[in-house]
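Review form for a predicted model. The reviewer records the input and the model, then writes brief findings.
Reviewer: anonymous (R2)
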Amino acid sequence: MESKRIDLKNMRERIAKRKASVEKKLFIINLTKENFCEILDDLVPMFRFELLNTCEDFDGYWEKKILDGKTVWRKGEEVLPSSSFFPFRKEVFDAIDKERNIYYKVGRNWRSIRGIKISDGTTQGVTRKRGDLTLILTKEKLKELYYKQNKSLEDIAKEFGTSRQNILKIMKKYGLIRRTQSKARIEAIKKGKFEKFEYHEINEKFFSEWSPEMAWVLGLLFTDGTIGKTRVAIHSIDLDLIEKIKKFLNSSNPIAKRPQSYDKSKHIYEFGFYRENMRGDLNKLGLHERKSLNMIFPNIPEEYTRHFIRGCWDGDGSIFFDKDKLVASYVTGSKKFIERLVQELHKIGIFRRGPSYRLEKSGRRVRLPITNETQAKYPNGKFPLTIHMKNINAYYIKIQARENVEKLYHYFYDGVDESMYLSRKYEVFVKGLKLDGKGEKEQLTLNLDF
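Model under review:
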C-alpha cells in the first residue's frame, strides 16, 4: 500500500514537470521579440547567465550592464543588446532557470510569468515575485560583494530587493563563511554606520611574525597589558612608552589620559585596540584573560628573548638605588613565569654563589640550604637567582651584585635603539653604573652572545 502511494506521488511530480515543460515551450513559441527584450531588460543589473551549445560567438557567460540608459549584455570585450539573443531564447531561459534553481528546487510557474509580462502589460520583473530577486545572486557575485567590496548582508539584501535572512540562507547553501562579529563591526564603523565609533588603522599582522619590536611590545603586554573579549589595552604612567608602542603598531588610535586614582595630580595613559586576528595571535603566544597568576613564559626564538624580557622588565621590573647601591628587581604573580625568567638570566651569567636567604616578616634573614640535587646540577657553584615570596600571590627576584647588574644592562641595551626601551629605567641604569658617554659604555662591554 505504501509503495503505491509513493508511485502516485512520483507520478504526480512527473505530470507536473511535463506540464510545466509544455507551458514553458508554449510560452517561448508565442513570445515576441519585444516581450523577450522586456523580460531580459527587467532583470537586475549585473545578472549573469551562461549560454551553452549555441555557437562560438554566443557561448559563455553574459553579464547585464546599463549603457546610456539601455540594457546591454557583455562577455569580455563584446557587448550586445537583448534582441541579439532572441534566436536563442530557449537556451537563454534555460540558462536563467539554471541560475535561479541554484537556490530553489521548485520550478518556476511560466504561466505566471506570461501573465505578468504579456497579458496585463505590467513591468514587474520576472524575479520580483515573492522576493525572488535573490534567485539571480550567483556565488561569484555574492563573493565579490561580500568579500571584495565588504558589503554587509543588509546592504546586499537592499540591492537585490530581498531580506537579510534570504541572503544569509544563500550564503549557507553556497558554503560561504560569514565575517565574525568584530570584523562586521569594523566594516560598519568604516562606513559610518555607528556615529559613536571611529575606525582607526593598525598593523593587524604585527604579532604574527617575530621581530625585536614585536618581542618588546609583547613583553609589555604580558606585564602592563590587559586582554578581554572585545579589547586589548596597555596602561602606563610613561607617555613616551605608550607613544612608542602606538608607533610600532602604525595605529591612528588616540592615546587616552586620565588622573591616577591615588594621585589626582598625575596621569595614567592608555592605548587600546581590537582586531580579532590580533587577539588570536596574542592568545597563541600565551596571553590570555586574567593572566596575572597563571602567566607562562612563551616559546620565543632565542634571538628575540632578550627583547621580550626587556619589555617585561619595563613593565613589572625595577631599577633603583638602595643605600647608594644599584639594585634591579622583578616581581610577578606567576611562579612558573619567574622560574623560567631566572633560567634565562642564568644562561647569560647572572647567578648567585653560595647560599641564599629568605627575609621573614620580622625582618630576620633565614639562610636557605643548598640541596644535593642543586649542587649536582650546578657543580661550578653558579646557582640560579633565588625566588622569594613577597606574599601569597607574588614572587620576586633581586639582583644586587654589581657584576650581575652590569650584565643585565648590556643584555638589555647593547645594540638596541632607544625606541625599544623605557627611557626612565635606562637612565637609572646609566646613572648607577656611571656610564657617561659612549667611551665609558664601551669599557664595560662584556662578552655576551645575543
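Findings: Residues 1-5, 102-135, 192-197, 437-450 have pLDDT under 50 and may be disordered.
Further findings: Residues 211 and 416 are 13 Å apart (CA to CA).
Recommendation: see findings above.
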